[in-house]
Amino acid sequence: MASADFVDARLELFLFQKDLDAWQRDLARLAPGTDASIGGDRGLSLVFHMHEDRSLSVTVDDPDRLTAMLWIQPQETWVQEHHQRLEHLRETWPSEVVETAPMAYEWSPSRKR
Fold first, then answer.
1. Could you tell me the pTM of the whole model?
2. Rounded Cα gap, residues 3 and 22, in angstroms
């Protein structure tokens, strides 16, 4: 969710394991002059671009409705906090869900009902 005086945007995106993997790689490599992004291949996207002063341009893009760019100066620990949130998400991801083919998910045969 991105909020500013002039916009309140929520990016609702269904995530797959490959999205989380790519987001983790992007965050680990984020440095001045580079981007970290999630989504995009399915229309919606969130992009962080780091500048030399370590400020961020944050772009929320929904091609059908809205594109908004915010410029922020995050706390020094924001990348570590994102990594912690990502780990928490991975811990709570339903272990009963398995990828049976690229981009195909279903309940595990060993799932207890």
1. 0.71
2. 24
> What is the distance of C-alpha 89 from the center of its chain?
11
| DSSP class per residue in 10-41 | -------HHHHHHHHHHHHH--TT-EEEEE-T
**34 near 50, Cβ under 8 Å?**
yes
Buried b (16+ CB within 10 A) or exposed e, 67-97: eeeeeeeeeeeebeebeeeeeeeeeeeeeee
Kindly report, residue by residue over 2-15, the tens digit of the pLDDT.
Answer: 555 666 666 676 77
Kindly report, residue by residue over 101-110, the tens digit of the pLDDT.
876 777 777 7
CA 8 to chain centre: 17
DSSP structure string for 49-74: EE-TTS-EEEEEEETTTEEEEEEE--
